[in-house]
Amino acid sequence: MDQTAEIAPAKINLALHVIGQRADGYHLIDSLVTFADRGDRVSARIADADAFMLSGPFSGGLETDGNNLTLKARDLLRATVIEAGGAAPPVALHLEKNLPVAAGIGGGSADAAATLRALMRLWNVESDAEALGALALRLGADVPMCLAGRPAVARGIGEKLTPAPSLPSLHLLLVNPLKPVSTPDIFRRLDRRDNPPMDALPGSFSLPDWSEFLAGQRNDLEAPARQCVPEIGIIQTLLRLTGAQLCRMSGSGATCFGLYESREAARAAERNLRTAQPGWFVEALTTVSGDET
């Protein structure tokens, strides 16, 4: 194999409870995450020298040096492979950026995880799950969950993952006003860092049961995010007007999601909101199912 590609799916926090803070400043979370059927795309091929290209509607302004998480993932995996006596020849990487940047839906973490998956295949790297998870964590707290790419409860700082096998596929509409949000700034604005954890997950695969469960959970970052991006409240009002059963912000924002009964309902809402707000990111999608783990 001399070339390969990986999708870096959007990550959605269906609930995100901030339940504590470590002595080193990292916040402890209790979050239910799932992943979309679309996102960015990372392709890799063996080359004479390392190269990195960007394309896609949200590639403008992205860094192309060592600060880019895609390149950090390449360099970290290469160093690990070489230290173990393996070969990690030069590669040309291409990141197709289809998702907004700093939007609370995975972004650079998902791109880094996709890069790890692609290069492990390209370089014939074998690694056990624990070692790979530890490597991913060195790139960021969200990278292990993005590397797994399956519905899960994320605890600790996001690295302690428990599968959520009973979570069904969900029909969502993602909306972002294209205003980037600084995650550290949102955490600094929190009034409270010792909130209650999530309730126990439903044991059934029933969408009504999950809808009822999700309605009782929170995103503790939403209130401080609204201080920075007032459009979050407008988005959720518009989502409700299109028939969304549930509206919530994902991650540290400013992307919000609406939950719909069917794919057709989500797509109808997508058409309506794209017409009403042509300058926003509006995307209907379906999430992966927990029983596919």
Automatic annotation (TrEMBL):
<dbReference type="InterPro" id="IPR014721">
    <property type="entry name" value="Ribsml_uS5_D2-typ_fold_subgr"/>
</dbReference>
<comment type="similarity">
    <text>Belongs to the GHMP kinase family. IspE subfamily.</text>
</comment>
<dbReference type="InterPro" id="IPR020568">
    <property type="entry name" value="Ribosomal_Su5_D2-typ_SF"/>
</dbReference>
<dbReference type="InterPro" id="IPR013750">
    <property type="entry name" value="GHMP_kinase_C_dom"/>
</dbReference>
<comment type="function">
    <text>Catalyzes the phosphorylation of the position 2 hydroxy group of 4-diphosphocytidyl-2C-methyl-D-erythritol.</text>
</comment>
<keyword id="KW-0418">Kinase</keyword>
<feature type="binding site">
    <location>
        <begin position="100"/>
        <end position="110"/>
    </location>
    <ligand>
        <name>ATP</name>
    </ligand>
</feature>
<protein>
    <recommendedName>
        <fullName>4-diphosphocytidyl-2-C-methyl-D-erythritol kinase</fullName>
        <ecNumber>2.7.1.148</ecNumber>
    </recommendedName>
</protein>
<keyword id="KW-0067">ATP-binding</keyword>
<dbReference type="GO" id="GO:0016114">
    <property type="term" value="P:terpenoid biosynthetic process"/>
</dbReference>
<feature type="domain" description="GHMP kinase C-terminal">
    <location>
        <begin position="211"/>
        <end position="275"/>
    </location>
</feature>
<feature type="active site">
    <location>
        <position position="142"/>
    </location>
</feature>
<dbReference type="GO" id="GO:0005524">
    <property type="term" value="F:ATP binding"/>
</dbReference>
<dbReference type="InterPro" id="IPR004424">
    <property type="entry name" value="IspE"/>
</dbReference>
<feature type="domain" description="GHMP kinase N-terminal">
    <location>
        <begin position="76"/>
        <end position="149"/>
    </location>
</feature>
<keyword id="KW-0547">Nucleotide-binding</keyword>
<feature type="active site">
    <location>
        <position position="11"/>
    </location>
</feature>
<dbReference type="InterPro" id="IPR036554">
    <property type="entry name" value="GHMP_kinase_C_sf"/>
</dbReference>
<dbReference type="GO" id="GO:0019288">
    <property type="term" value="P:isopentenyl diphosphate biosynthetic process, methylerythritol 4-phosphate pathway"/>
</dbReference>
<keyword id="KW-0808">Transferase</keyword>
<keyword id="KW-0414">Isoprene biosynthesis</keyword>
<dbReference type="Pfam" id="PF08544">
    <property type="entry name" value="GHMP_kinases_C"/>
</dbReference>
<dbReference type="Pfam" id="PF00288">
    <property type="entry name" value="GHMP_kinases_N"/>
</dbReference>
<dbReference type="GO" id="GO:0050515">
    <property type="term" value="F:4-(cytidine 5'-diphospho)-2-C-methyl-D-erythritol kinase activity"/>
</dbReference>
<dbReference type="InterPro" id="IPR006204">
    <property type="entry name" value="GHMP_kinase_N_dom"/>
</dbReference>
<comment type="pathway">
    <text>Isoprenoid biosynthesis; isopentenyl diphosphate biosynthesis via DXP pathway; isopentenyl diphosphate from 1-deoxy-D-xylulose 5-phosphate: step 3/6.</text>
</comment>
